[in-house]
């Protein structure tokens, strides 16, 4: 029974495939990087599984990736002898997209005005295996999972459906065969049956892959003719283990794309190494764009753990705190067991020390960006600031550093956010606090009646409109000796000493004039407010509601209620 079936791609997968089939992405070469990257992951997984499961009888001595070209059939095959996939895995891994942020991506793609915008979105998301359909009119995948006897054959033209059948025999691992589109063979440049061309792409995008990538290459035989020999075409050097001056900028970029599944260059590269009793190397990247799932529940952290060059795990939460979840990269530790588990890692003192150092290094890299390359820093903060601010609550030890690298929208400049240092430099004489107002959006804050007196008197107010702002601003210790003061709470005294003297008698008079009205209002509104008092903080609005100095703000109250508290 071969159980031949025709199945439909999941709706989201179908939409992404459409984009690939009609290839809105201009750099088609990268399909090969995606396939090689998958093959490399499959080899990593097999090596680890074979190590952990002694009953899995597989030979791991000769793990490799083969690239096979058939010029007559116009096919290109990427073959690995890695972990392979079961039939069910093929259906779920290839027939659907489990990646978080997919729905968000599709929504944004619909909104995208032109193809450049769409390309950029696709690039940030990275569509992996589906990128094969940019160059192939049909893709065949033949796979057998390590430890299983039956194999699976999958085939699709990328148009809505695929076929799947069970076979009795196939080599262990996965072979992906691309039946290349005819137009790609016209021009030498796009001819993926050209050995030199394919070899060039591998060397450009996948040189650092730590498994041999092999190809049959024609070489001079010394007698005037050529002979065909299988060669390893990549250098296989683990990039993070190389000293900085022995790797090029280009190599770092390609490595970033390999581990991040991002198609765009990183914003910043961060390298760290420690020698001595606990040896490790770290190669981290700050992406140029926030991922679509940065604020979603199922999001992952981007740091991988290797032990002595052996891949151990993705998404290693012990190595990087949640507020830096957008940082991608690799940590290779020398003295851990290959059997190490997530639970053990959380307890491990050495790992905690590495994490501390990584955090410090990432934050100091941002600080350097801030002083040396303002534009880059601004991009960073625009993309990741809202996440980094979570660290003000979650990482008290680095609070001061985070405040130092943070920027905030303010009434000073509608376009450009300000740092606290800049704010303090602009503070008016006699101003003791850093004024702020929280709210649901920038315009809600700007139009708040609380703003009136402050704007009138020329005081700058920070506009805190991210949900997380409510959480940290109450708990931080202030910055450089200045406390944060909400302009919506308690009594705010904006008068200078001089104004105070002249207005004191005037205010007493007002207080007497309005005493009756105020007490009447207080009684009438006693179910809703604590007190009605005269205020100097309004210039055009007749009244506003003020919280007590220690009250929970309306936004925070809403958040607590939403969390069921
Ligand atoms: P990603 O690599 O980002 O997960 P892909 O679209 O490239 O996304 O691949 C989807 C999934 O299909 C992979 O996560 C992997 O589980 C599976 N897969 C793809 N290629 C292979 C392969 N050569 N061997 C084993 N599994 C593979
Ligand atoms: Mg992939």
Automatic annotation (TrEMBL):
<feature type="binding site">
    <location>
        <position position="174"/>
    </location>
    <ligand>
        <name>ATP</name>
    </ligand>
</feature>
<comment type="function">
    <text>Molecular chaperone. Has ATPase activity.</text>
</comment>
<dbReference type="InterPro" id="IPR003594">
    <property type="entry name" value="HATPase_dom"/>
</dbReference>
<feature type="binding site">
    <location>
        <position position="34"/>
    </location>
    <ligand>
        <name>ATP</name>
    </ligand>
</feature>
<dbReference type="Pfam" id="PF00183">
    <property type="entry name" value="HSP90"/>
</dbReference>
<dbReference type="InterPro" id="IPR019805">
    <property type="entry name" value="Heat_shock_protein_90_CS"/>
</dbReference>
<dbReference type="InterPro" id="IPR036890">
    <property type="entry name" value="HATPase_C_sf"/>
</dbReference>
<dbReference type="InterPro" id="IPR020575">
    <property type="entry name" value="Hsp90_N"/>
</dbReference>
<comment type="similarity">
    <text>Belongs to the heat shock protein 90 family.</text>
</comment>
<dbReference type="InterPro" id="IPR020568">
    <property type="entry name" value="Ribosomal_Su5_D2-typ_SF"/>
</dbReference>
<dbReference type="GO" id="GO:0005524">
    <property type="term" value="F:ATP binding"/>
</dbReference>
<dbReference type="GO" id="GO:0140662">
    <property type="term" value="F:ATP-dependent protein folding chaperone"/>
</dbReference>
<feature type="binding site">
    <location>
        <position position="85"/>
    </location>
    <ligand>
        <name>ATP</name>
    </ligand>
</feature>
<feature type="binding site">
    <location>
        <begin position="124"/>
        <end position="129"/>
    </location>
    <ligand>
        <name>ATP</name>
    </ligand>
</feature>
<keyword id="KW-0547">Nucleotide-binding</keyword>
<feature type="binding site">
    <location>
        <position position="38"/>
    </location>
    <ligand>
        <name>ATP</name>
    </ligand>
</feature>
<feature type="region of interest" description="B">
    <location>
        <begin position="343"/>
        <end position="558"/>
    </location>
</feature>
<feature type="binding site">
    <location>
        <position position="99"/>
    </location>
    <ligand>
        <name>ATP</name>
    </ligand>
</feature>
<feature type="domain" description="Histidine kinase/HSP90-like ATPase">
    <location>
        <begin position="27"/>
        <end position="184"/>
    </location>
</feature>
<protein>
    <recommendedName>
        <fullName>Chaperone protein HtpG</fullName>
    </recommendedName>
</protein>
<keyword id="KW-0963">Cytoplasm</keyword>
<keyword id="KW-0346">Stress response</keyword>
<dbReference type="InterPro" id="IPR001404">
    <property type="entry name" value="Hsp90_fam"/>
</dbReference>
<dbReference type="Pfam" id="PF13589">
    <property type="entry name" value="HATPase_c_3"/>
</dbReference>
<feature type="binding site">
    <location>
        <begin position="100"/>
        <end position="101"/>
    </location>
    <ligand>
        <name>ATP</name>
    </ligand>
</feature>
<feature type="region of interest" description="A; substrate-binding">
    <location>
        <begin position="1"/>
        <end position="342"/>
    </location>
</feature>
<dbReference type="GO" id="GO:0016887">
    <property type="term" value="F:ATP hydrolysis activity"/>
</dbReference>
<dbReference type="GO" id="GO:0051082">
    <property type="term" value="F:unfolded protein binding"/>
</dbReference>
<feature type="binding site">
    <location>
        <position position="80"/>
    </location>
    <ligand>
        <name>ATP</name>
    </ligand>
</feature>
<keyword id="KW-0067">ATP-binding</keyword>
<dbReference type="GO" id="GO:0005737">
    <property type="term" value="C:cytoplasm"/>
</dbReference>
<feature type="binding site">
    <location>
        <position position="342"/>
    </location>
    <ligand>
        <name>ATP</name>
    </ligand>
</feature>
<comment type="subunit">
    <text>Homodimer.</text>
</comment>
<dbReference type="InterPro" id="IPR037196">
    <property type="entry name" value="HSP90_C"/>
</dbReference>
<keyword id="KW-0143">Chaperone</keyword>
